[in-house]
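$ run holo --ligand "KG4" --emit tokens
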Amino acid sequence: MEKEVKILAIESSCDETAAAVVVNGRDVRSNVISSQIDIHTLYGGVVPEIASRNHIERINQVIEEALKKADTTLEEIDAIGVTYGPGLVGALLVGVAEAKALAYAAKKPLIPVHHIEGHISANYIENKELKPPFLCLVVSGGHTHLVKVLDYGKYEILGKTRDDAAGEAFDKVARAIGLGYPGGPKIEKVSHKGNPDAISFPRAKVGKDEYDFSFSGLKSAVLNYLNSCKMKDIEINQADVAASFQKAVSDVLVDHVNHALNEFKMDKFAIAGGVASNGVIREALREACEKKGVEFYHPSPILCTDNGAMIGAAAYYDYLAGIRADLSLNAIPNLKLGEK
Ligand code: KG4
Ligand code: ZN
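-- output --
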């Protein structure tokens, strides 16, 4: 029988303080997330300094609760996994310092985890049969990557965003049309009342790097549209703007994925990151996959946005690969995928 490896995973790269206990990368025993969204909503976005301070206040409690909910103790844990990049440096440092202290005190191996690798690995939790190779689209607040997952821990980046990440565009457009923070879920909600074909926003093509993305042009087109309405004294229809913007993002994502599926003939596709919790985008990608007979995977919404369970899933495969950090582990805010 497979040996049980029980990992305590810690995530604090942005505005969620999270910890989880995950067995063999796929069996989530607890997944505790303390969101700071309410606090940052007051400021219209994440304030790094406030995020760090709140992580410090909450992290011990979140870890204790994760251990308790999993009905286990630090002594019974086999290894501690922690996100060390990319993300906000002050926020990352809180998780890294905590993980190092626990690993030292309890004499447990420490596993450094890449945040994006965590998002990708969220797909393993509910899809026990999913194994590399597969194509994965990571769409979050900080990143937009189209990646070939060649094996556990082995990635080939086909394309990424040249400017804004997909989630960032959602957040900026939401602010511009008066929906506030966090933009993604709010745009999705009002979009259901709008017409996705009401306004024709551009679908950006990026030169010769066919798999790269660009969302700043789309964001500017929305801002220009809003300005021109204002000048002409035309009242904007928030739901139509939201639905049309969301459709433009979705079309670009589907187009890139279709193109990669055609070129690389992969038979499995997964979506990951906060924007993957968007039902309209998810269904458009599912339909594209079904048309090609490609198996479609996605994490449930709570595993799409930042959480500890996804870090525990990624940490397990790193653990099996023998990846360990010592107490000199530092936070790396701009860590690239595939760089350890
Ligand atoms: O993955 P995540 O929790 O954090 C990062 O690693 O960035 O992603 C957060 C991003 C935010 O930009 C948020 O607006 C977006 O994901 N998001 C959504 C939805 N839920 C969250 N975007 C579109 N539709 C949603 N339902
Ligand atoms: Zn994230």
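-- notes --
The CA atoms of residues 188 and 295 lie 25 Å apart.
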